Amino acid sequence: MVDVLSQNEIDALLAALSSGEMEAEELKKDESQKKVRVYDFKRATRFSKDHLRSLTRIHENFARYLTTYFSTQLRTFVQINVVGVEQLPYDEFIRSIPKMTILNIFEAEPLEGRMVLEIHPNVAYAMLDRLLGGAGAAPAKINALTEIDTIIMEKMFSRALESLTEAWRTVVEIYPRLEALETNPQFMQIASPNDTIALISLSTKIGDTTGMVNLCIPHVVIEPIMPRLSVHHMFVTHKKTKTVEESDALQERVNKAKLTMVAELGHSEISVHEFLNLAVGDVISLDKPVDQGLHIRVGDKLKFIGSPGTVKGKVAVQVTEIVSEGVEEEHDE
C-alpha cells in the first residue's frame, strides 16, 4: 500500500528543504532504504476501507432514524451523529466501555450471531428520567437498575433497534430482536477476545446531557454479506419488472379494497341549547334544497351527484352525475 502525504506534510517537507534542515540527499537515502511496516496479528484487518465507508453511510441513516425516534418518545431536543467507524479486537472494545453501562444484546435475522448496542449510563438514565416525567438530566450517581427501570429500558431500546431495519434495507432485510439487557460487560460474551469487530460510535445529546452510543458488530456476523457492502453494490439499482401474474394479483387486490361511500343530505348549524332540547318529531332545516342533487363522497373526495329515493322499501341514492377530476366543490354562502 502506498502512503499518501497530506497537504500539511508536503508543506512541512518543502519548508524543511528550503531552510536547510533536511538535505535532498537524505531524502533520497530514505527512499532507497527498505521500508518495514509493523503488523499486529491480534488486530487483524477484516474490513476494507470500502467496507468501513459503506458502514458509515448505513449508520448515518441509522443515526437520523434514532434522532427522530427518541425526539418523539422523549419530547425533547435529541441529536445523534456518527463520529467514527473503526475495526478493533472485541477484547479492546470491552475494556474501553464503563464497568457499569447499558448493554442491549440482540440478534438480527437472517444474520447469525449476536450484536450489542451499548448506551452510556449518562444517556440511558437521562432518557429514563425524561420518560418518567423529569427534565432529562443525568444522575449524579449511577445506581443499579430496578426491575421497573429494566422493563422501561427494554421496551424503549427494543423499539429503537427497529431503526436498523430501515438503515440496512439497501443491503439486506434484517429483523433485530432484543435478547437481553445487561449492565456488566464482563457478563457479556458475544465474540472471542481476539475476534475483529466493527465499532460504530454515535455522539448523543439529549437536552443538556451528552454521551456515547456504541454499536458493536462482530465480523463473523456480517461476513456472509460483506460483498454487498461494496460501494458498487450499494449504488447499483436493479430495475425489477413485474410479471403478468404479479400485475394481475395487484389488480385483484386493488379491486377488493374497501372504500367508504357517503351521501350527504346537507348541513345545518344549531346551538348547544337547541341540540340538548331535541325531541322525537323535531325537524332540522338543512342548507340544501330538496331539488338539489346530493353530494356522494368516496373517502373524502366528491365523486358523484345523486338523488334520494327508495328501492324495495329501503333508502337508496341514484347516481345522476359523475364529477370530473379537478372540479372544485361549490360551497353555499
Automatic annotation (TrEMBL):
Q: InterPro entries under this entry?
A: CheC-like_sf (IPR028976), Flag_FliM (IPR001689), FliN-like_C (IPR001543), SpoA-like_sf (IPR036429)
Q: Which PANTHER family does this UniProt record tie to the protein?
A: FLAGELLAR MOTOR SWITCH PROTEIN FLIM, YOP PROTEINS TRANSLOCATION PROTEIN Q
| Flagellar motor switch protein FliN-like C-terminal domain location | 252-323
**Family, per entry:** Belongs to the FliM family.
Q: Which GO terms describe its biological process?
A: bacterial-type flagellum-dependent swarming motility; positive chemotaxis
The family database entries (CDD domains) matched by this protein are listed as:
FliM
NCBIfam families linked to this entry: fliM_switch
> Could you identify this protein by its name?
Flagellar motor switch protein FliM
Ranked from the top, the taxonomy reads: Bacteria, Bacillati, Bacillota, Bacilli, Bacillales
What do the Gene Ontology cellular component annotations say? bacterial-type flagellum basal body; plasma membrane
Subcellular location(s): the record lists: Bacterial flagellum basal body; Cell membrane
Keyword Cell membrane assigned to the entry: answer is: yes
- What's a Gene Ontology MF term here? cytoskeletal motor activity
Enumerate the SUPFAM superfamilies for this protein. CheC-like (SSF103039), Surface presentation of antigens (SPOA) (SSF101801)
Q: What kind of membrane protein is this, topologically?
A: Peripheral membrane protein
Q: Which domain of life is it from?
A: Bacteria
Keywords from the UniProt entry: Bacterial flagellum, Cell membrane, Cell projection, Chemotaxis, Cilium, Flagellar rotation, Flagellum, Membrane
